[in-house]
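FORM 12-B: Structure-to-Sequence Request
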């Protein structure tokens, strides 16, 4: 079911939402961070999450780095949310755009898939996602939106027991939100999507 007014899309029992906002303000079980492979914090959404969440996130990232040497592109790890309203942060590393022929699409798919898998394994209900790789990593937003939305709708549509009740894309600008909206409407129309 697709509610055009609310821009809310129901897949099984899970609502998929697109909205404009600052992901650090989300009061959900987990927000997803577009991290770097050293889990070292940085600019963009990563910097904003570390700044709002405080030193606990950095400390937990340091422990993960010591245990497994960081997080390769396409994979995801989870830490507590520190001072954030979100209980957890799922840190995933998207691909750096290199023109499109270096496996970027599959890596971006993996980032979304592994983030949601970690949310499911952790028994979470409400998760918010940013537009991974579309800032300093340079992935063209229209292409990234298609990858993100086909992967997330595909994931939620697969028969598996999960507690997820709401997955929101929290997009930083109206321009990015409009691109995601157009792509989602296109996916819904083209696939004759059956919730
Ligand atoms: P990457 O390195 O994966 O490209 P960036 O953080 O540079 O990550 O950008 C990813 C996306 O996150 C961009 O669309 C950017 O506009 C957006 N962004 C930046 N800050 C925030 C925020 N506080 N909340 C939500 N999205 C944000």
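FORM 12-B RESPONSE
SEQUENCE OUT:
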């Amino acid at each position: 079911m697709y509610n055009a007014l609310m821009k809310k899309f129901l897949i099984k029992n899970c609502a998929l939402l697109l909205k404009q906002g600052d992901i650090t303000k989300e009061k959900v079980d987990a927000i997803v961070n577009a991290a770097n492979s050293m889990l070292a914090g940085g600019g963009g959404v990563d910097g904003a999450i570390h700044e709002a969440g405080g030193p606990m996130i950095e400390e937990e990232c340091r422990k993960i780095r010591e245990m497994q040497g960081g997080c390769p592109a396409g994979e995801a790890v989870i830490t507590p949310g520190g001072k954030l309203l979100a209980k957890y942060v799922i840190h995933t590393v998207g691909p750096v755009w290199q023109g499109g022929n270096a496996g970027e699409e599959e890596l971006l798919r993996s980032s979304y898939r592994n983030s949601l898998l970690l949310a499911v394994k952790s028994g979470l209900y409400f998760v918010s996602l940013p537009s991974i790789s579309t800032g300093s990593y340079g992935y063209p937003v229209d292409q990234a939106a298609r990858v993100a939305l086909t992967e997330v709708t595909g994931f939620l549509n697969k028969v598996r027991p999960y507690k997820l009740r709401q997955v929101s894309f929290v997009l930083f600008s109206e321009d990015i939100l409009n691109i995601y909206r157009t792509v989602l409407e296109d996916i819904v129309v083209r696939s004759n999507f059956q919730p």
